[in-house]
Amino acid sequence: MRLQTRVIIILTFMWALILLALAADSKYVVSRNYEYLEKHLISLEIQDVGRAFDHMEYSLVLYTVPWSVWNDAYNFMKNKNQEFINNNFVPGTFTSSQINFFLFYDNNGKLFYGRQYDLLAHRFVPLSPALLTYLNSNIDFLKHPNIQSRKVGILNTRDGMILMSSLPILKSNAAGPVAGTMLMGYYLTAENFRDLSNTVGLELSFFPIADIHKDPELSLMFQNLISSKKPYVAWQNDAFAYGYLMLYDVNHKPVGMLRACISRAVYHQGLSTERHYLIIFSLLGIVVLAMIWYLMKLFILDRVISVSHQVQKISQTNAFDSSIVVSGSDEISGLVASINKMMRLINYSQMQLSYMAKHDALTHLPNRAYFYNLLENAIVEAHNTGTQIAVMFLDMDKFKEVNDQFGHNMGDKVLQHIATRIKEVVGKRGVAARQSGDEFIIYITNATTEIAEHIANELLKIPREKSTISSTEGRIAFSVGISMYPKDGETVEELVQHADQAMYAAKRKSSNTFHFYNKAPA
Predict the structure, then answer these.
(1) Domains (range + CATH), the chain
(2) CB 479 within 8 A of CB 395
């Protein structure tokens, strides 16, 4: 039976029991409560806009981290090698990430190297003098007192507003000392605010400081934001309201206001509810109201509360793989079915995000961070069982020539094929991961030197195999370095470092070979 039908039946039954007609003051009570609720909900939506903008800053920091915590960037600050520039600061780097700037500053706050790319004209342009002048006058944004330091925010330059992140340049293991500062950023354009609008599902407008002072209404909203120091809500008319949020630069100075246009659905719902209850309270008596309360509680409210409690419990425990259970077959049941479907989608999305966070996007092998975590657990297990672990560092020699001759698309196919074959060779004996670029790292549990040597030989056969990547056959080779736990190290860092050193020893020895780590005599 439909919920609406139940309400009609209940009201009809109650009508026969009416003894008194009551006129209530619901208009004042309901109006005030709905106005408070509407203002609260609008404030929450404006706060969501602020969190969405914070997410833009956080996303920029996340993109900057792999560049700033990288041995190549760390070494670049020492020798400023042209190869690093040629390999990394190409148009694709800027267009794929929608970044306008890459800047390197030394620890004295002096520009070491920088590059700017015009995303609209698709070409490199000289570094913005306005940006450099701004950074020279805000030297604190360029300095990081420790390796955990992070700075991100808006730079309000003469050329326009720039969203910029500033991170210390560290080694790939996130160790210091700090070699300098890496900055990445992009101009905040109307397109960025349109994307933000799509993200939060609200119509957003941005007003720079210069435009605000030209408009009396905007100027008043600006003063209200300054005085309240929190989002401000203004009722525009019966159809919609405006919510205002101040944006600040890295020096905590206002750079402009974000305005969200929000439909006053709650207000109209309040008017509808108000009219509805005015009629009811004018006609029904105390007895009728008590019976209506009882029956509505029995047939509706208890079910809604039950659903609410289940939703709260799921939200608190993040148990999105569970389902909400409710009796009956009406709109509430349909709503619960929709919620259950949504939770299944959320659970699936969480699983996908978890997978993406732990695996390399191209090869689908575990990424470096996840591999290090697995290796650390394997070391604990090997310590408890008294077994050995072989750590192999594999580098693809002459892979750059494949990229240069056949293009990066072919290079990606080669990497995917190689990754698949490495995973097949390793099998269930261990884990293979993509370290970075054309480097892979492997660990084998319950290993001996003979087992490690056998697997290394199997890996060295891969470049000589017939494959679907026929045009690249014979153009690459492997260099494999091997370290053994616990002989060559008892930590992840030591084993990986020694395997890396052994790999370079293999490179010096000959093409397509492997080498065990040999500790230099004291």
Answers:
(1) 3-22+284-356 (no CATH), 56-188 (3.30.450.220), 368-516 (3.30.70.270)
(2) yes
